[in-house]
Write a structure and sequence with these properties.
This protein is an alpha+beta fold. The protein contains 10 helices and 15 strands.
Length: 354
């Protein structure tokens, strides 16, 4: 299953990470639609808004189906045929869609038949492993293996917002197969776009954590085929839905258990959080002060902002609740992890369910 994700990258960084080639072979960036509705977060849960990729043909009649846009959508598909005035009254959970029953349930079969396929974007997703002996759970952060770049290796310290942006500038987002639908309120009003994440049996590497995982589209060709409903039939597209082994993970703090917590500690390796000998450098102290002055709320369009300054923002109210002491330095720890310090996490031997 997939019930919690992280997607904190700034809009422009996320768009660059989703660069693609159209049918003519021209390199392009997907265009944002309703960008003000995108709220970066380290801890997204169902019914929140998350960015998805979809074909431009869905929103522009006559457009090339190979062209893409990014649009924030509600997590938890509300079927177009739902008759109630309040979408929260939907009686069943549609945040995930099992691949083996996708053609049996009307909520998913109808949008699939209409070509309403999308790609859900995230830094990665969280899953909880249950210990049968103690009945306690251990959260994990699961994501694509990241490739070292000259830019990321040159980061000695994050002294300010510009440096912080460079740390994440080469992150490869997780691309999960999804379906979306458009629901129109019976009494009129704006259409609600919402999505579901397709799930499959876990790969061998994740089976010890949970028996289900998102259907991950690994590579540009898979993403292109899934999105291009104008050229690729549903039957052909469904062949892309299967487990992938190209995934990595690490244990994280239980701070992620509550979706109200939205700090970098949600996805930091637990091993780094537990290192008492780590001390914050002067630059890390500056970073913590900078983090404490920022807010995760949407930017006020009336307030002048620096051009191209899409730096992730966090709320000081969350930082106050963080289990990290200033001496450990959340920014310093995240920097150390992103420099690819070798992980030595044990892999669970038996599957457990949440």
């Amino acid at each position: 299953m997939c019930g919690r994700t992280s997607c904190h990258l700034p809009k422009e960084v996320l768009a660059r990470a989703c660069a693609y080639r159209d049918r003519q072979g021209q390199r392009r960036l997907p265009e944002w639609r309703d960008p003000d509705r995108y709220c970066p977060s380290y801890n997204k849960s169902p019914q929140s808004s998350s960015p998805v990729l979809l074909s431009r043909l869905h929103v522009e009649k006559g457009a090339d189906s190979s062209e893409r846009i990014i649009a924030p959508m509600r997590w938890g598909l509300v079927p177009s045929w739902f008759k109630e005035a309040d979408p929260s009254k939907l009686q069943y959970n549609t945040s995930n869609c099992r691949s083996d029953t996708i053609m049996e349930k009307r909520s998913f079969k109808v949008p699939l038949g209409k070509g309403r396929r999308c790609v859900v974007l995230a830094d990665g997703f969280y899953e909880w492993q249950r210990c049968q002996r103690t009945n306690r759970t251990q959260p994990y952060f699961i994501y694509f293996p990241q490739i070292k770049t000259e830019k990321s290796e040159s980061m000695g310290a994050a002294d300010g917002p510009e440096d912080w942006e460079k740390v994440w500038d080469n992150w490869r987002p997780l691309t999960m197969a999804g379906l979306f639908d458009c629901w129109e309120p019976p009494e009129g009003g704006d259409c609600l776009y919402s999505y579901t994440i397709i799930t499959v049996d876990s790969c061998k590497g994740l089976n010890g954590i949970h028996h289900r995982m998102p259907a991950i589209l690994d590579g540009e060709e898979a993403v292109s085929m899934w999105l291009d409903f104008g050229e690729v039939s549903a039957q052909e597209a469904l062949k892309l839905i299967h487990p992938t082994e190209n995934i990595t993970f690490h244990r994280v703090s239980s701070v992620v258990n509550s979706s109200r917590n939205n700090t970098p500690e949600c996805l930091l390796p637990l091993r780094l959080l537990g290192r008492k000998e780590l001390k914050a450098s002067g630059s890390s102290q500056k970073m913590l002060q900078w983090l404490a002055t920022k807010s995760p709320k949407k930017q006020d369009t009336k307030t002048p902002q620096k051009a191209e300054s899409d730096v992730p923002q966090w709320s000081s109210q969350f930082l106050k609740k963080s289990p990290l002491s200033p001496k450990r330095g959340g920014a310093d720890l995240l920097e150390r992890w992103l420099k690819r310090e070798k992980e030595e996490e044990p892999v669970a031997k038996r599957p457990h369910t949440q």
